[in-house]
Batch of 2 targets.
Target 1
Amino acid sequence: MSLMFTADHEWILVKGDVATIGITDYAQQALGDIVFVETPEVGSDVSSGDEAGVVESVKAASEIYVPVSGEVVEVNEDLESEPSKVNTDPMTDGWMFKVRMTEPAELDGLMDEAAYTSHIEGLD
Amino acid sequence: MAHPTSHLLTTPLDSLHRELGAKMVPFAGYDMPVSYPIGVLKEHEQTRVRAGLFDVSHMGQAYLKGPDAVDAIESLVPGDISGLAGNGVRYTVLTNDQGGIIDDLMISRCEGDLYLVFNAACKEQDIAHITGSIGDRASFEVIHDRALIALQGPDASTVLARFLPASRHMDFMTVARLHWDEVECIVTRSGYTGEDGYEISIPCDDAQDICRLLLDEPEVEACGLGARDSLRLEAGLCLYGNDIDQTTTPVEAGLTWIVGKRRRTEKNFPGADRIVQQINDQPTRKRVGIRPDGRAPARAGTDVLDLNGHVVGHITSGGFGPTTGGPVAMGYVPILLSEPGTEIGLSVRGKVLPARVVKMPFTPHHYYNG
């Protein structure tokens, strides 16, 4: 099991060939109060770099980019009624969707926690 | 992030915003607080149930003075300004020759002078337009030495009365010059949230002290532009540049009520022919409230579709209404689709979301009525 990050502030938790994807604490703080989350459809095929979902705060919409290719196998349906979970528990209950990866080598381009921490420090 | 970008102007409350931990954003050339640490949702709720304090010092303030000031301004706006009581405040618009809206503004009759508050983004253009049009019929004096704050919400009057007792029984849409100790404030009972409240013009040097006193009151929290926008959207109030602009007339915008009865007969303001004709014959399109059926907000610029999938208009303001508990929007649709209850579609990210035309405001107004 390993946790990785993108420069666009998604996190990816990999267990076997399934990647769970959400947005980071840094991202939820920057977005503010989240009022709507659109997740991809279960069963759909996604390619790395695709826009796979949207997170909307009171003020604006932000796209979620899927960092790995594969099939969407599960989405967090709780976010439909409780989108604020992304604010309160971005790394746990606020997960967004799971992808069964077809190109695990794509993970090589992602950041580990230390690299991501210094990435966000560079943004402030 | 800690320092304003050099080309942005700052308000007299800038250091207070930073001390309070505000998230600052550029808005109309100013570095402005979009939200404070409690966040937009709580700031919105705060203003609906208690009281929110907003810095709106970026807005333009001016006096129009002289015996002909009322006639001079009436040559630029469709509102009945001469009929305004001695302490009355009126919401009106500057119109162009096609009946489009150059800006919306508040005009107060304040001890013989007119006191004007207009939009930050239109400031330079409004000043040029007004001074260029009225020439020397009246003296237009831009106020540079005053901050402007808004105290809004059901507890606003209780709070303000502790410092300015005379504010308590001011009627809605009236103005008074009141003294906060020695500091002269121009107080109007008005706002942009749909709630009871005040806008208070304060000399720049005293603005921070007064805001700190207000923020020390248990009912009051600082609120930013984010909450200001969601509050005014739920209240069905127009944002200049989004919901009204040079191409929309007051009639199309659902603001026929601001065109004074006498002014419709006199027709002596810019664009009067077109505006009066639209009042008599109906415009071809109209600004309406729109509620998406689902949870997804539809933002400004979203295409509005009829049931055959044809684009018939667009959303001009849209987002999540925290008090409404769902997405809310407004936009322009053909008059045939403008009746409340009409089903329409919204094109959001390639999908058509069902929505319907609804009456505004989305949340009832709570203005003071004595």
Target 2
Amino acid sequence: MAVSFQPIRPLLQTGTNTVSRWFSYIGLGIGVLLLLCSIQMYVNIQQLLKEGSIRKNGFDFVSITKSVTNQTMGQPEKNLFHQPDIDELKSQPFIDGVAPLVPNDFRVKLSAGDVLPFSTDMFLETLENDFIDTIPPSFTWREGQPSIPIILSSDFFEIYNVFAPGQGLPQVSKETAMGIPVQITAEGNGRQEIFYAKIVAFSDRVNSVLVPKAFLDWANKSFGTKKYVEASRLFIKVKDANNPDLLRFLDSKNYKLNKDKTLLGRNKMVIQGIFTGLGIFGLLVVLLALMLFSFYLQLVIARSKDSLHLLLMLGYSPSWLGRNVSRRFIPVYISIIVVTLAVVQLMQWSFHHFVMYDRPELSSFIHWGVIATGVVLVALSMVTNYRLVRRMLGRLGEAG
Amino acid sequence: MQLIIRDLLPLYFDKDKTRLSDIWGKNIAFNKGERIKIVAPSGSGKTSLIHFLYGMRKEYSGSIGYDDKSIAGFSAEDFATYRKDHISVVFQDLRLFPEQTVMQNLEIKRQLNPYHPKEKITEMAQRLGIGDKLSSRSRICSYGEQQRVAIIRSLLQPFDILLLDEPFSHLDNNNSEKAMTLMLEEAALRNATIIFADLERIDYYPYTQLYHL
């Protein structure tokens, strides 16, 4: 027959510390709320700025060009980057990687086929995959493949939508644009070939029309005339695009840095920093509240010392008593977490609905990570409580 | 179950105490079913002995073992198991929960490892003359009544050894005899050893071994 805790319960004196008990509960609630809110906001920022970020794995990716001056105008070779330039850039301690934006060396004509009455000369470029912010798995090409995946600059796409009505062309959404197959005609070297291309992603970082490197290498060889195609733009990978050494070096070489794209990354970092700080503060409040709670628990045990000691003398097992004494607080912990989760859910819904006007990047529901944190907190509090009670009972049992 | 003590002496006693004592500093085995009487004047360490045997205090040299298992290596959980299944005790200072009723006090012990059904509590209480006290808080019972509650409490579990520390100090002869009879019956049911420590010999305890502390 299982031993019942019911006759034991009245032996624990808890009644007279109502105020300190409620202080612990409220403190714990506030701490948990701060912590969970910070996590949720952190997730929100991640989701909101996912598209706009030019930072990847802690690096800034920025493009540089040679400044076109009156002296260099009309002399393309002076405005292109040559291998020694690239080697020199690579050797700088503040630059972690360099990749040229290799352009096409043949004529490219783009038309929308039968879908839109639209045809234009255009350019293609390619860049190492590491330097592109949005790389879908379909961004590959093999010789003989008739379709080419394209990553289009978001800015170019917006410019199209601005000018489209004036040109009698329809405005299109990103989703629709990704569904429209376009025709690309490559011409040069006395040859002509038609490919079908499809936009597979939009890039906020690279202002270009990007195709897989394999395609452009092949096409430049097949349709181009030059042996070696040089780039007018380079992408560099740096820890900090605002590093004074970097800026001084670029100035000295008369290189121009395309910097506005770094701003969003900086802002995101600052906001994330603020919420990380808030999260740490919340964690500290949780710790403080748990300490308060453990003091309260110690007080309960100290006040019920004689009864607990006698129970141990009668043959009650310390672990059974510890489990049952600490189990009394499980409903309290669960209530605190459930109420807090409900408040965070309400805040998230209000934030999404009233502040963010139901933007699709965000969800009205709290992130699973927030719920998981809540569950972990309950488990953690129960384990620490049990261990505390068990240790105190152990000490009681040793006393005669 | 056999209880073996070897060279046992409280740390706060002088070595020469062992000269006159049958227990301190000696090697003794208490065997199953024996009825031990330990006669001890005040201050000779009677309560210390019972507390040592029950594992409540550790201020002694020498060793105590149950079936050759030294209690020095027992954990708090081991003691809990022994106190629940093998060793029962009547404390000299009674040790009841003052705010609980007599019945609640007894039930707290009985539910741990019930040897008797709940009805047996009423029967025993009536036999010892406290049948009408079952629903009274134990703190308002007289010492004599509380002592009988403590005696009944010790008989509600299975045990191999029953330790008695002046169990009749608050009882008259008539009530003591009734309680003794009940304890002897219960010990016989379990074929248990009784270790009965008191100030002097009493006639109605048919001991098999007599020791002077």
